[in-house]
Structures are given as structure tokens and as C-alpha cells.
Amino acid sequence: MKRLNAVIIKEFKHILRDPRSLAIVFLMPLVQIFIFGHVLSFDLKKIETMIIDYDETALSRELAEQFASSHYYQIIYSAEEETDGRPDPSWAEELLRAGKIKQFIIIPRGFSRNFAHNPPATVGITIDGSDSNIANRIYQYNERLLSNFTLSKTGISNPMSIHIKMFFNPEISSPYFIIPGLVAVLMMMISALLTSLSVAREKEAGSIHLLFISPLSSSEIILGKTIPYVVVALLDGMIILAFARFWFGVPFQGSLSILFVFSLIYIICGLSLGIVISTIAPTQKVAMLVALLATLLPSIFLSGFIFPLESLSSFLRGFSYLVPATYFLRIIRGVTLKGATWSYFLTESILLVGISFFLLVIASLKFQRLRRLGR
Questions:
Q1: pLDDT at 126
Q2: Is residue 192 located within the same domain as residue 305?
Q3: pLDDT of residue 32
Q4: Does pTM top 0.70 for this prediction?
Q5: Radius of gyration in angstroms for the set of CA atoms belonging to the chain, rounded to a whole number
Q6: Does the residue 2 lie in any domain?
Q7: CB of 160 within 8 A of CB of 271?
Q8: Cα–Cα distance, 73 to 105 (Å, whole number)
Q9: Same domain for 329 and 206?
Q10: What domain range includes position 328?
Q11: Domain at 101, CATH number
């Protein structure tokens, strides 16, 4: 027992002398349960909805008010394209393609006259089906609201004929939604991993001192270490996209050149993140671990890949705007499933370029500091 106690005491001393490991052991579970507790939710809030009321009666306005008063919906009003004071359905389709709304509802003429009669009153609902999880939830919310509305008016739960159309993914096929998201996650992870080892490898090999004494500036070294991996990551991304298209049959409605340019911007963003990690990490193993944690978890849980951003708390939703995959997911799903063009993603592309530039500047400054310290 004395020998065993000596070993136990020795290990406790090692543990207490490593406060960083203790912090990881005790703080990481709390951080994860905090994030997952907010993220693991399929509830939707403020579903962007446009209502086109052709009936313009007290009953149709009351139905529209039911949607507006529910905290699940956010009614979008637009005067940019109107017909007789009402939004034009073709403009509503463009908003759906741009991701500005999740659905639009058409209340046709004669709705009030045919309500609870035979033939029954009809309501047309067009839902963005590119995200199958969100589309199914919207369908359930709509069904519940319309059923409660008709029950309160007639005592019958279903006196209406509801025509539902799923845009961009008529079969609500999960692979069409999941595979483009996986492509975005994998491209970010691979890009960051590629460059996360570059400077760390030089540190371990001791060859980093040759870079320190070279006439190259810090920014030139960082760019020189990033550009070769752009080609490798881009080829890898093209292989992943081709595999998703031809093996899983994911439809491709948009332009290949548009997706190529946006993928290049996204890959540069991932490579820039990796080079920042490489300048901070002391070894290749640490760099690889940090790169996986910094890309995989945020890209899966905080980008809208699986869980809708609308279900996140305001704090985590604000943090999701710092995750590059948040923007590329909109781009890749918009191009492949919706056939969206350049104009729909100007904001996302500007933000990705800004994040890449910021990360490259940080990497240059960190490398310059390493150079000044000589290690």
C-alpha cells in the first residue's frame, strides 16, 4: 500500500501541476453542455412568411392575422414588386430563391365564400424545400395553425383544401440537404488541416530559423505557405463535389463557374484559419487537434448545417456569424438546389473575403512576433 500510495500521490501532484489540463477537463464539459443545450433544438422561430391575399375579406384578413400574431412566424411585407397593391407571386418566388423568405401563402379569391362549403376554400402554400428539416417543421406548424383556425370557426378541424408546393426539393429528400452541407464542412476541415501543419512542422524540424533569417517578409512567407495549398484544397473540393453529384445524385441547378469561384474564396478562408493555428500551435499534433476542434464543431452545430440558426439563442446566433461555413452553406445550397446567381450572394462573398484577409493579417503578425522572439 505504501508503494501504491506513493504512485497515487505522485500522479495527483502531476495533475495539480498542469492547470491547463484541469481547465480542459472541468470547463470543456460545461462549455459543451451550454452549446449543445442551446443548439440541439429543431424548434423554429420567426419563419419568414409572405402572405398574398387576393380575397381581401374579413375572414382572409383574420387568417393572415393568425399567422402574424404567432411567434413562430415573421410576416415579410415587400412593396418592390406589387400587383394591385399585393406582392407579385413571381417576386415572392425570387425572395424564396434568395433565401429572404421561407414560404409564401396565397389566399385566392372566393376564400371567404367557399369557407366550410363544398367545394372547400383553398389555400396555396409554397415552401422552400432545400432544407428538408426546416421544410417539414414549417409544414407541421402551418397544418396546426390552419387546423386550429378552421376549428375555431366551424367546429370542424379540416374544412379547407390546402395545396402545398415544395420548391427546389419536391421529394423533401434528406441527401439533397445534407450532402451539400457535408461538402462545406469537409472543405473547411481539410483546408484548415492542410496549412495548420505548415509552420508547426518547421518548428518541430528546427528549420523555422532558416525562415527567420531569410530576406522574405513575414507576409510573403505566410502567403508563400498558403498559395500551394490552395491548389491542393481546390482539387480536393472538386473531387468531393463530383462524388456528391454523381454518386449521391445531388442535383445541380446553378452555374459551375459560380460555385468554383465561391469555393475558391471559401477554401482560402479555411487555409487562412489553418495558418493562424499553425503559428500558435507548438507541435503538429496540437495544431491538428486545434484545427479539428476549430472547424468541425462550429461548422456542424453553429452554421445551420443540421440545426436551423433560428433555433439558436441570440448569443450563439451572433457567434455563428463568425463561422465561415455559415455563409458557404447558403451559397452551395443556393447554387446547387436553387440555381441562384452571383447577385444573391454578394454579402456572403464579401464577408468570406473579409474573414480571409483578417486571418491572413493575424497570421502575419503572429509569425512576425515569433520571428522577433527567435522561436
A1: 92
A2: yes
A3: 66
A4: yes
A5: 26
A6: no
A7: no
A8: 12
A9: yes
A10: 174-373
A11: 3.40.1710.10
Of 108, 133, 167, which closes a domain?
167
Same domain, 75 and 128: yes
Q: Give pLDDT, residue 355.
A: 92
Q: For residue 127, what is its C-alpha cell?
A: 415552401
What pLDDT score was predicted for residue 199?
Answer: 78
Domain count within the chain: 2
Extract the C-alpha cell encoding 358.
Answer: 483578417
What confidence score (pLDDT) does residue 168 get? 82
Q: Is residue 39 part of a domain?
A: no
Q: Is residue 9 part of a domain?
A: no
Statement to judge: residues 121 and 185 lie in one domain:
no
* Cα–Cα distance list, 57 to 54, 119, 157, 195, 298 (Å): 9, 19, 21, 62, 47
Instruction: Say yes or no: 158 and 134 in one domain.
Output: yes
* DSSP string for 227-277: HHHHHHHHHHHHHHHHHHHHTS-----S-HHHHHHHHHHHHHHHHHHHHHH
Residue 178, sorted as left (phi over 0), alpha (psi -120 to 50) or beta, turns out to be: alpha
Q: What local confidence, expressed as pLDDT, does residue 80 receive?
A: 46
For each successive 10 residues of the chain (375 residues), what is the average pLDDT?
A: 78 74 69 64 79 89 90 74 62 84 90 77 88 84 88 70 83 78 87 83 77 79 82 83 82 85 90 87 84 86 79 78 91 86 87 91 83 67
Same domain, 201 and 347: yes
Q: What's residue 85's pLDDT?
A: 57
Contact 336, 251 (CB under 8 A): yes
Residue entry with cell 414549417: 138
Query: Per the structure block, which three cell numbers stand in for 310?
Result: 433560428
What are the strands, taking DSSP E only, across 11-95? 47-53, 73-75, 82-83, 86-87
Residue 166 Cα distances to 50, 124, 162, 171, 244, angstroms: 15, 11, 13, 8, 22
Residue 340 and residue 202 share a domain: yes
Residues 160, 206, single domain; the answer is no
